[in-house]
User: Which sequence fits this backbone?
């Protein structure tokens, strides 16, 4: 199978839930995703010149002004060997009021600065008569393939990712996922969604991952130790992390409940084989587009309608299944990539993977 396909297109299912029409985080009404991919050069590393294999990904919770209409949010770090700028604000107020930005480790500062500048241009009273801007930025380390010391991400890349956000969510080696590796195969961006029934109606749960974690022998697909059974070259990176997961929903849940969803996402990570390595930053950001906090309404008591805790099991299940499927999608869609100093990370061999799954009765 020479064409890179999504896991579900190849016959995998990841639970019995119903996917949204796109099977992506963009099935949550209002959510859009944009990428800027930076890929140029080949051969030996020349610091500051390349080769460059990196990028930026922006997740927009809605199409309005995030500063005016922040969304309810929470975060969880399964293993904290990674960065999440803005985490203290999320923890304190349960709100996100900028796009959620993903990039490489040492470009976090550049992306944060550019995101602030972008928000200031669209909010002329921010920092004057309105609150200041605290950007939400997270990262994974792409230095095995990328000239990470070259700090190649700039403001124009951030703007391109934000302004190019759409319902068409590209996967694999794109945006922030350009230089990422997953279970020693080429990883990057993956996404999935589910539609769930709960009191009040049908809600969407969507997950997007930036996968850069794990070692080959750990990889599980539908419970089968595929990684240990594949006979392909196995590059060994210096580090074995990380993964950033973004969970989105339009279900009316509060920050405390979103924290519970974020923790369940790590069960989906475990389903793909991860033990959360010592040097892995395993970080989850979760938000709900329901009951957005309208800052233009002053001195008004909020009476948001929320799902009861006893009614969110379907959201838990959806989060677990979406996370595992998104990770495998990141592997199925990513292509073999050569980066600096001849480092090559191979794509997951789809035909061989499917053959193993057939032998084990999964297809």
Assistant:
């Amino acid at each position: 199978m020479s064409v890179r396909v999504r896991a579900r297109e190849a016959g995998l299912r990841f639970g019995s839930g119903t996917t949204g029409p796109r099977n992506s985080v963009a099935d949550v009404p209002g959510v859009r995703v944009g990428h800027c991919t930076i890929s140029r050069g080949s051969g030996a590393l020349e610091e500051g010149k390349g080769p460059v294999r990196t990028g930026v990904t922006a997740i927009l919770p809605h199409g309005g002004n995030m500063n005016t209409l922040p969304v309810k949010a929470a975060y969880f770090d399964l293993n904290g060997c990674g960065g999440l700028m803005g985490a203290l604000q999320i923890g304190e107020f349960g709100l996100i009021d900028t796009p959620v930005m993903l990039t490489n480790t040492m470009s976090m500062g550049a992306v944060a600065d550019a995101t602030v500048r972008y928000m200031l241009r669209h909010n002329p009273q921010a920092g004057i008569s309105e609150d200041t801007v605290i950007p939400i930025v997270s990262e994974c380390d792409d230095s095995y393939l990328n000239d990470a010391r070259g700090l190649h991400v700039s403001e124009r890349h951030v703007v391109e990712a934000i302004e190019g956000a759409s319902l068409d969510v590209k996967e694999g080696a794109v945006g922030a996922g350009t230089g990422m590796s997953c279970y020693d195969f080429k990883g990057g961006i993956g996404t999935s969604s589910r539609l769930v029934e709960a009191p009040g109606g049908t809600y969407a749960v969507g997950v997007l991952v930036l996968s850069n974690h794990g070692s080959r022998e750990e990889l599980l697909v539908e419970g089968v130790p595929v990684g240990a059974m594949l006979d392909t070259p196995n590059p060994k990176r210096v580090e074995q992390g990380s993964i950033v997961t973004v969970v989105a929903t339009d279900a009316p849940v509060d920050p405390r409940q979103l924290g519970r969803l974020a923790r369940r996402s790590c069960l989906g990570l475990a389903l793909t084989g991860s033990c959360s390595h010592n040097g892995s930053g395993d970080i989850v950001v979760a938000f709900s587009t329901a009951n957005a906090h309208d800052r233009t309404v002053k001195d008004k008591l909020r009476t948001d309608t929320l799902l009861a805790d006893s009614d969110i099991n379907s959201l838990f299940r959806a989060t677990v299944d979406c996370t595992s499927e998104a990770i495998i999608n990141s592997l199925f869609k990513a292509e073999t990539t050569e980066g600096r100093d001849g480092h090559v990370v191979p794509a997951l061999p789809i035909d061989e993977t499917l053959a193993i799954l057939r032998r084990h009765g999964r297809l």
